[in-house]
Specification:
Two copies of one chain form a homodimer. Chain A is of the alpha/beta class. Chain A is built from twelve helices and 13 strands.
């Protein structure tokens, strides 16, 4: 694993605004939390060794067969299981900058990074850039590689068209990763899943440990899917607010924010470093941002932000304005 | 993973007595459950990517350095991480019958089972037999293998002396697995850890995914360790009750129960099969036992039981008596 991921609030006492995690900021989790409080006795028993009940609900919800679904302990568990299963292809490729765990997982299984390797990873929308890739590009990747892994963890946070589960399973060599952590804004519970053709799912499940998904994550996923709960809502308004945040930051001297198709965005600061900006905002404003300098190909000047509420976004804009004015 | 693990209550509606899981039957979990209900908002944030806070508390509690501890998502996660890390030694050995996941994890990483292989696994107390191995035997194993993995998940459920954490880290080639699931009777949360010399812990951590341990499991572990809570108590009385159960079952014609040093025991039934006994007890008595026929070297006649309360044990004894009398 890479050290220096976002959402490191545990390092900074006094954080009140967390721009470092790409999760919807004000999710409607009260009903789920009530349900989990009522279900806390589930800690007393083992969960299902293989989470078949949840997989059936996911198959129904996403319109595929249950043999085409595998639930995991978060999308990151999915990434490591995929790298483990396909380690014998020996080489992988990614489009930098992107989520560091694809390369970390592959390297931990002895794989080498090479252009045009058999196993290709793509994150769509891409972390940390916020860009989305169109269908033509994705189809070309699928044609040019033995296996294409598409991490669609952020799919609920964009209005751009992405590959559907039905399209994915038709391809034969595509493995899609999805994140209930992101869809339902529950990163503490660890819940993700994979959609792929049944023969690939069988290979992936062969390497999975029993009881991989804990009982409260299973209960949350089952309850949310069965009740068709909407936890994150009005994505268009949220994405408009993200654009407003980007536009406002782009007016600050020394700050440049890339175009984004989602709720988070990649920025640079000059002449100072992202690490110093992060430290300043945490200590003086209770604001946490993501120092993005540990993404391969990025620099010490890169940081990542996910839009929060308009009020919090304004506080961030003013804090960065002040930081740039006073240096 | 092997299919057919115990605690499969989800398959049998109406189970009121669960002898199939080797967990202390009436743990004092009310305070922990209250604390988790108050902490349910932790689902909204990522846990620490690497569970360093919990590892510091574990190091203190077990009297080793924090560099000698690695927290995992249950003991099973530990087993798979160990197999993954040492897959390049290519061969493993176990003492059958034992917990099936050692062999399953090793095989999923392409390793072969061989006598006297470099990587040796031992479960102490052993699942499913309930026997413990003495220090002389364990030291011989450590001398005769490149790496010795000792799974002490059930150590809190025996009065026999076992290898201490301090002894384990002194050896240099011993890796101990422990289970907070078992110590605190919280199998739904998934929480275990590894104790080993620092160089081995570093190798193991290099292959671990971030956010492997969910936020509520971390919170439970940290709270329990910080408050020195005793969740399972009066183990001597519980083990006496296990011996009473064994003695009573051994008086039933066709039933034979092996000697045990812990709370669970391995039994055989004749002339019927364990599967038929399990099915009968589940349907007619709300009692769940563990069909042990899928342990390598065991037969269709083997089943495993963990002692419950005296009242429930009496109901089990009578139910098996009746089953044997009426065949």
């Amino acid at each position: 694993m890479t050290y220096g991921h976002g959402d490191d609030t545990y390092r900074y006492p006094g954080i009140t605004m967390n721009f470092s995690s790409n999760i919807f900021p004000n999710p409607h989790l009260e009903e789920l939390e009530d349900h989990l409080r009522r279900s806390i006795h589930l800690i007393r028993n083992y969960p299902e060794p293989a989470p078949e009940h949840l997989e059936r609900l996911l198959a129904q919800d996403y319109g595929v067969d249950k043999e085409q679904v595998m639930a995991t302990s978060g999308a990151t568990d999915a990434i490591y299981i995929i790298a483990q299963t396909f380690r014998d292809v020996h080489a992988f490729c990614v489009n930098h900058p992107t989520f560091s765990e694809y390369a970390d997982a592959c390297r931990s299984f002895g794989m080498q990074e090479q252009p045009d390797a058999p196993l290709c990873w793509v994150c769509n929308p891409n972390n940390p850039t916020g860009e989305t890739y169109n269908g033509t590009f994705i189809n070309q990747l699928a044609d040019n590689h033995k296996f294409l892994i598409i991490d669609q963890s952020y799919e609920d946070y964009t209005l751009q068209p992405l590959m559907t589960p039905q399209e994915a399973v038709r391809h034969g060599n595509i493995i899609q990763i999805r994140s209930l952590t992101k869809r339902y804004a529950i990163p503490g519970l660890r819940l993700g899943f994979i959609i792929a053709p049944a023969p690939l799912i069988r290979r992936l499940k062969a390497g999975q440990r029993p009881w991989a998904v804990n009982a409260l994550a299973l209960e949350a996923g089952q309850w949310l899917l069965a009740h068709h709960h909407r936890i994150i809502d009005d994505i268009p308004a949220y994405l408009n607010e993200a654009q407003r945040l980007r536009d406002a930051l782009n007016t600050i001297p020394g700050i440049s924010v890339r175009h984004t198709h989602t709720n988070f965005m990649l920025a640079t600061i000059q002449p100072d470093t992202a690490a110093r900006l992060k430290d300043h905002l945490a200590r003086n404003h209770g604001i946490l941002i993501r120092d993005a300098s540990n993404f391969t190909t990025l620099t010490h000047h890169h940081f990542r932000l996910a839009a929060q509420s308009p009020q919090h976004n304004d506080l961030l804009i003013n804090a960065i304005k002040e930081f740039q004015a006073n240096r």
